[in-house]
Amino acid sequence: MSKTKRLAIDFHVHVDENVNYEKIPQMMRARNLDGAGIVTHNNFAFAKKVVKKFTRVDKTKVYFPGVEIDTADGHLLAFGINKEIPVNKSAAATVELIRSLGGTSIIPHPFMSHNSVGWTAANLKADGMEFYNGFAKIFLNFPNIMAKVAFKYNGFSPLGGSDSHYHKAIGTCFTWVEIDGKPSEEKILAAVKRGATFPAIRPIDQYDLVNFIRIVFTPKKGRKVVRFLDYF
Q1: Which pLDDT tens digit goes with each residue over 60-82?
Q2: Disulfide: which of 30, 37, 54, 143 matches 111 by Cβ 3.0-4.6 Å?
Q3: Calpha distance 106→1 (Å, rounded)
Q4: Interacting residues of 170 by C-beta distance below 8 A, sequence separation 6+
C-alpha cells in the first residue's frame, strides 16, 4: 500500500525578466522545498527548456514547466499543457482551452491591480487559486486575505506561490500537496485537481521586499524572456 506523502511545492517561480534562475536549485534546497512550478510570462517553451536543465542537475526535486498567461481579464497560470497558449483571450476561454489540453489552470493573485482577474474569478472554472501570493505580502497581506474571504467557497483548490522574480524569494509562499507514492509532476497536478492542497506562508522578510522591487521596476520588454545563459 502506498504511503501518503506531503510535499512542499512553490507553484509560482519565475525564470524570466532577468531572474538569476541558475541559483534556483540551490534555493530549493535552502528552503526545504520538494518541487516548483517553473513559469515565464507567455513563453511556455522557455520554461520547458529550463525545467529540462534543472531536472538533469537536480534529481532530488520535482520541477514542472508552466506559463503565466496575459488574458483579456488578467493573469492565469497553466501547467500540464503541451503547447503555447494564445494571449489576450478572455480568462474564461483561456481556462477552457487549458482544460481541453488536459492541463491544470490556476488563478494567481486575484486581487493584485491591473494584472489580476479580480471578481471575474467567481465565474471561472479554474482548478486552483493562490490564496497566498508572495508579491501580495508587501501590501500587508491584504490582497491574500481578500482572495481567501471572497473565494473560499468557490471550489478552487487553495494554493500558495512565491511569485518569485528574485531567486532568494522562492518559497516565501508555498503549498503542501498530498500525494501517494513517488513524487511526480502528474501526481502533483492531480492533487491540485482533487483539492489535496494546503497553502502556507512565511513571515515577511527582506527577500519579499527585494522581490517586490524587482517585479515593479524591472523592464518587462513586452513580457518576453530577456536572458538565457547556458550555464550547465
Answers
A1: 999 999 999 999 999 999 999 99
A2: 143
A3: 31
A4: 10, 13, 24, 27, 28, 31, 33, 36, 162, 164
